[in-house]
Structure formats: C-alpha cells, structure tokens
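About this split. The held-out portion is used to measure sequence recovery: a designer receives only the structure tokens and must propose an amino acid at every position. Recovery is the fraction of positions where the proposal matches the reference. Here is one held-out target exactly as it appears in the evaluation file.
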C-alpha cells in the first residue's frame, strides 16, 4: 500500500485526512523508512498543535537539525488550525479558520505557503499534519455533512500547499483482499471466505482488522488460520461491536448507529442487551474521563483511566475517537440514559429494540 503514497519526489508538506488508523500507520512507516536509522533521534519529531503554535513548528522546520540529512515533523491535532482556539481576539465557529485578531497559529494558511516556497527541493524538513477529526467512508456520497464541510476546508487550505493522503475506510472487497495480504505478511493465511467474513464483521476497519489478524497469526503459529480460531474471534466480536456502536454514536451518525445495532441484535439476540448496555456504559464513562483529562494518545489514556476501567488494546483508539468527537455535555447526558435503559431492560419491556434505539437517540443529539 505504501507504493501509492506520494513520497517520490518528496514534498515539504503532507496532510493525512481521515480517521482510518491503518493507512495513517502505513504512511508513517513509509516516511520513517526514508530516514537513516542512526538519525531517527534527531530526524523525527512528534508535535501537537493543541499545545504548540504552528509558527513554532515551521521555525524549527526552516532551521532543521544538522545531525540529520532529513527531518520530519509529525504534527497531530490539525483540527486546532480550524477551531475556536486558532485566534485569541476573535470568536470563530467550530472548524472555521480565524481571519482576524491575534492568532494562535499565525497567518494560517499563508505561513504554510511561505514555508513551502522556502523549503527547497528536495526539502531538508517535511511537515506532516494529522487531520483525523473526520470520518471518510468508502462511499463519499454517504459522508456526513459536517465531515464534508471539514474536508472542503482542509482541501482549500492544507491541500493547497501539499498532497492530501486520504485515510478512508475501506470497502469490504478491498478490506478482504488486504486481510489476506496482512495474514501472508505475518506468516499465515486466510481463505477467501474467512477474509470476507472478517471484513464484514469489522466493517472494513483496517486498523482493527490488522490487530485481529495479528492475534490469529499468533494462535496459528505459522499454519493457516483455522475455522475454530475464526469462530473464537466471532464469539469475541460482541465486545468489539459495542465499541464500534459507541464510536458511531460519538460521531452523531444516527443511521450508522442504528444499522450497527440491528446487526448486533441479529448476531447476539435480545437476551444479550443488558450486556451491551454495560459495555456501552463503560465505553462512554472512559471517554468522559479521557476528555476531561485532555488526553490525546494511547499512553495518556491508560494513565488517565483508573485500574478496572481501561479498554482492551483493540478499543483504545475508539475511546480516544469518542473523547475527541463527543462534547462533554452529550457524554454526560448519555450515561443516565444508559442507566435508565438498564432498569427498563430488567423490567421485561415490550420492545428491547425500542429501549436500545432510545439510547442511540440520546447519544447522537447535541441538544436534548
């Protein structure tokens, strides 16, 4: 997949747009491979626009370390370029570039244009922006309106000064083909039906799929993945599905959440609804704690959460995404709704599906 990345010739600015972690990780690995191993300490810098102004990053990039022939600045939280914090003296709406006042990130995007013009060819420093605050589905026509608007702003600003690397969710056909390639890379193999089932189960989420294949490969120990191992994975999928449903609610995607709920009920049945509510309650409780602690990475997540309230490894990114996307007020509102649903489910309601749908309604609305 790295062959598709626009790294030849190298550009001074790239933007990774979308929340598919697999594509992002593949690009990161391809870029790191361009740096001699002995220069990684000086040649790679992780920065965060939530705490570091853009002009500071660009100043460092224009004066790169003499200890490395190429320096890469991996810059998280590109959304901060478009939010209220972008300007101190003006009040801007969410995701709208500030145009007046004292700006946290300087004269964005003009400062990026100036950097690009002075970067040289090939550049001595590369700045990579991670814009993972929007979701890009396989079918762009089904993209949420809010995410479409965000993508248009990114294309008009960051896209005008460097290539956009789209980190979109894969379609199930592409995901199935990649699943078989992932398995081969790990020294095992999946049959075509196994790969299709895995892609269907995980809805083309490549990052999650890679982690599940890694576990299957360890179990297979060099042999082809067995149907028994796949069955065990499917048995454990209910927990993963709860996190996927919660993440969909966090994005405000009502239709997608209802679709996942129907799929969950078809696979698990109404008798498991109380377990689903328990898993959702844990997920939203973790997301609220992470949001209030202003955590932005996995290591910070596990430090912020108390013992006994920590997600499994495959769900860590989902909790981070939920905390980033879901306003505190909505997180606080959905938790009582989950408690009410738990009480209702234990009272033999006429419709289990209706109780669960009411939880989704409470979770996707920004206002009561």
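Reference sequence for scoring:
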């Amino acid at each position: 997949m790295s062959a598709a990345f626009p790294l030849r010739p190298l550009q001074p600015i790239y933007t990774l747009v979308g929340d598919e972690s697999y594509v992002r990780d593949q690009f990161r690995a391809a870029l790191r491979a361009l740096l001699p191993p002995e220069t990684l300490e000086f040649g790679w810098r992780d920065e965060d626009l939530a705490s570091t102004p853009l002009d500071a990053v660009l100043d460092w990039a224009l004066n790169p370390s003499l200890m490395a022939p190429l320096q890469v600045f991996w810059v998280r939280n590109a959304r901060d370029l478009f939010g209220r914090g972008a300007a101190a003296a003006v009040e801007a709406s969410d995701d709208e570039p500030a145009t007046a006042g004292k700006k946290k990130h300087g004269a964005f995007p003009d400062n990026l244009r100036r950097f690009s013009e002075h970067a040289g060819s090939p550049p001595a420093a590369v700045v990579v922006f991670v814009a993972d605050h929007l979701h890009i589905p396989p079918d762009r026509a089904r993209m949420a309106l809010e995410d479409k608007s965000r993508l248009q702003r990114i294309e008009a600003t960051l896209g005008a000064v460097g290539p956009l690397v789209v980190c979109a969710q894969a379609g199930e056909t592409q995901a199935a083909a990649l699943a078989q390639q992932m398995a081969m890379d790990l020294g095992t193999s999946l049959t075509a039906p196994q790969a299709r089932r895995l892609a269907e189960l995980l809805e083309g989420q490549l990052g999650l799929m890679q982690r599940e294949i890694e576990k299957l490969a360890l179990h297979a120990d060099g042999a082809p993945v067995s149907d028994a191992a796949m069955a065990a994975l499917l048995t454990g999928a209910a927990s993963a599905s709860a996190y996927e449903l919660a993440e969909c609610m966090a994005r405000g995607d009502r239709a997608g959440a209802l679709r996942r709920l129907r799929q969950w009920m078809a696979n698990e049945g109404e008798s498991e609804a109380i377990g689903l509510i328990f898993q959702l309650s844990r997920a939203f409780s973790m997301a609220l704690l992470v949001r209030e602690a202003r955590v932005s990475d996995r290591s910070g997540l596990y430090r912020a959460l108390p013992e006994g309230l920590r997600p499994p490894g495959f769900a860590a990114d989902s909790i981070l995404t939920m905390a980033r996307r879901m306003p505190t007020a909505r997180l606080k509102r959905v938790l009582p709704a989950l408690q009410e649903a738990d009480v209702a489910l234990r009272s033999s309601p006429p419709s289990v599906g209706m109780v669960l749908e009411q939880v989704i309604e409470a979770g996707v609305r920004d206002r009561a």
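Annotator remark: The longest strand covers residues 125-131.
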